[in-house]
Automatic annotation (TrEMBL):
<dbReference type="InterPro" id="IPR009291">
    <property type="entry name" value="Vps62"/>
</dbReference>
<protein>
    <recommendedName>
        <fullName>Vacuolar protein sorting-associated protein 62</fullName>
    </recommendedName>
</protein>
<keyword id="KW-0732">Signal</keyword>
<dbReference type="Pfam" id="PF06101">
    <property type="entry name" value="Vps62"/>
</dbReference>
<feature type="signal peptide">
    <location>
        <begin position="1"/>
        <end position="20"/>
    </location>
</feature>
Length: 337
């Protein structure tokens, strides 16, 4: 049994003033290196869909099953009681936008919070860090990024893959306190690199968040990606990353541990809400009925489920096998611009 005595973050490195400014406590189950090595995220210079406050998603949506409001929903719905929805529809619950995904003008809350010059999402928490102790030496740190809206790509001038609610993540596997490898989520898949291969600012790897889709890449430039389940020609569908605005997710993050045996999330401090992590429903609207599809894909698609569905219990740094950990960041399907 681990102990959860809180310790103040006082012995912080002077080269990382970031930690000193956290002004919070973390449990001994959240090693300081999880914060010291946390990725920094470059948001695209032309992306209008910024990281978003997680609670805000609840304020602008109502839970529905099959496009019908459900009764018995706690009021107000908060990140502490969100898992009450599991008894009111479970996986079929969709946090459905009050305005609708096609609302015009577009609801301002889709746009999230542009980070300030220090990288903060002021007055909003758009990140959750989840620490998994796999064994005595292996620690997996998941860095989750939340965006209110995902703008999909275009194929032959047709837009598809828009959805409300967007969960992305990096994961760093630590071995005896040293970062070993890093995972970048990209659509239904992603890429893994050695920690050494990652581009970094000091100890902290950069993730490049693609314009609109927020897929995470290890380098800036143009990236082709295939649609899951479809075998389109390479270069058919592109993601774009650049050094637009630097987001430091750690500055506004909730921090947790997750026990893979019990499936229990525990907040690292007494303030961070826990219930939302147990939600089995989806973070945005369902796919609208009769949405026309092209190549099996629709313009508006269903919102995603949350962090607990992103394979928090992993054998390797990748969510599935085979896991290829690339030793050079320019390997893989990325194309320099
Ligand atoms: C997970 O919970 C089990 C059962 O309470 C406990 O034995 C185990 O030590 C916990 N694991 C971690 C990593 O805390
Ligand atoms: C969803 O609602 C539609 C329209 O009310 C209805 O025809 C359909 O049977 C419902 N689907 C389910 C799975 O309940
Ligand atoms: C609710 O959803 C979860 C997650 O998908 C699933 O494991 C569980 O079996 C579901 N519960 C019921 C009662 O259907
Ligand atoms: C943040 O919240 C405070 C208190 O409500 C408010 O005074 C301030 O203007 C807000 N800042 C931003 C950037 O929204």
């Amino acid at each position: 049994m681990r102990c959860f005595i809180s310790v103040a973050l006082v012995t912080l490195s002077t080269t990382q003033p970031v930690w000193a400014s956290l002004g919070d406590t973390v449990s001994t189950d959240v090693p300081q290196y999880v914060l010291e090595y946390a990725p920094l995220v470059w948001l695209h210079s032309e992306d209008t869909y910024m990281p978003s406050d997680i609670q805000q998603q609840l304020d602008h949506t109502r839970p529905m099953v099959n496009w019908t409001s459900i009764s018995g929903v706690p009021s107000p719905l908060t990140l502490n009681n969100l898992d009450a929805l599991n008894n009111l529809g479970n996986e079929s619950v969709y946090l459905t936008s009050l305005e609708g995904i096609e609302a015009s003008p577009e609801p301002a809350w889709f746009r999230g919070i542009g980070p300030d010059p220090e990288g903060r999402t002021v007055n909003g928490t758009a990140s959750a860090i989840i620490v998994v102790h796999r064994d005595d030496t292996t620690v997996d740190a998941f860095y989750f990024y939340f965006y209110a809206f995902n703008k999909g790509g275009k194929v032959l001038g047709l837009e598809f893959g828009d959805h409300i609610g967007d969960w992305e993540h990096n994961m760093i596997r630590f071995a005896s306190g040293k970062p070993d490898a890093i995972w970048y989520s990209q659509h239904a898949r992603g890429q893994a690199f050695t920690y050494n291969a990652a581009e970094k600012k000091g100890k902290r790897p950069y993730a490049y968040s693609a314009r609109g889709t927020h897929a995470n890449y290890a380098i800036e430039g143009t990236h082709d990606h295939t649609i899951p389940g479809l075998n389109l020609p390479a270069g058919f569908l592109m993601d774009y990353t650049d050094r637009g605005v630097l987001w430091d997710p750690v500055l506004n993050a909730y921090i947790y541990t997750y026990n893979t045996t019990t499936g229990v999330f525990q907040a690292a401090n007494s303030n961070d809400p826990v219930g939302w992590l147990n939600l089995n429903g989806k973070w945005g609207d369902d796919q609208p009925p009769n949405e026309p599809e092209i190549f099996g894909e629709a313009k508006n698609v269903a919102g995603p489920n949350g962090p607990k569905f992103k394979h928090l219990d992993r054998d390797t740094v990748c969510p599935s096998k085979p896991c290829i950990v690339l030793p050079v960041r320019t390997f893989g399907k990325e194309v320099p611009s």
